[in-house]
Design a protein that fits this description.
Layout: H1 7-14, H2 39-49, E1 52-53, H3 54-64, H4 73-85, E2 89-94, E3 97-102, H5 104-112, H6 119-127, H7 129-151, H8 154-176
Antiparallel strand pairs: 1-3, 2-3
Helix pairs in contact: 3-4
């Protein structure tokens, strides 16, 4: 802060977000962000299907959203602990991992939520069809690129690089088109 200025005056100079934040919002990243999922509801819904361990839940949510939502261990494991503290789930050691299952109280809560759209479905519905398939398409593209770079000769690797650069230019061209 400048000498003699107030916090309000400093913030006013930078707009609503204050220093370090641009017109696009926090972090300055801009663009449409994928909706965050409800980790608590997702965990309960998954455990209504079968017992799982934490990492398995993370993978399952990523798979069910086509890669659009992969909750972090930093959100899943504390939520598991909270649900266990609330008596909605119980955990036990199994093959060196902690396996979680619904308790009777947890089953009652999931039954009360029956008929609601699962949290992972809300994310894919909001994202649209193209975004839902993006993760798997990118995975297949990267696999093909790795194979060319590993097994191809120098000329093939150069052609692969040309394809990637052309794709990048064409993608930006899509954004540059008039609606």
């Amino acid at each position: 802060m400048r000498r003699g200025s107030t916090h309000r005056e400093e913030r006013a100079a930078f707009g609503d977000w204050g220093p370090g934040f641009g017109p696009r919002g926090r972090g300055g990243r801009g663009g449409r962000r994928t909706k965050r999922g409800n980790v608590r509801a997702a965990i309960l819904a998954l455990l209504a299907e079968r017992p799982m361990h934490g990492y398995e839940m993370i993978q399952e949510l990523e798979n069910r959203t086509g890669g659009l939502w992969r909750p972090s261990p930093g959100s899943v494991y504390p939520t598991l602990q909270l649900l266990e503290d609330e008596g909605l789930i119980s955990g036990r050691e199994s093959s060196g991992k902690r396996l979680f299952a619904l308790t009777d109280a947890g089953r009652a809560e999931t039954e009360a939520a029956a008929g609601r759209t699962p949290p992972w479905a809300e994310i894919t519905e909001d994202a649209g069809e193209a975004a839902t398939h993006l993760h798997s398409a990118m995975g297949r593209l990267m696999m093909a690129l790795r194979q060319v770079m590993h097994a191809g000769n120098e000329e093939q690797r150069e052609r692969a690089l040309d394809v990637i650069n052309d794709a990048r230019r064409r993608l930006y061209g899509i954004l540059a088109e008039d609606d």
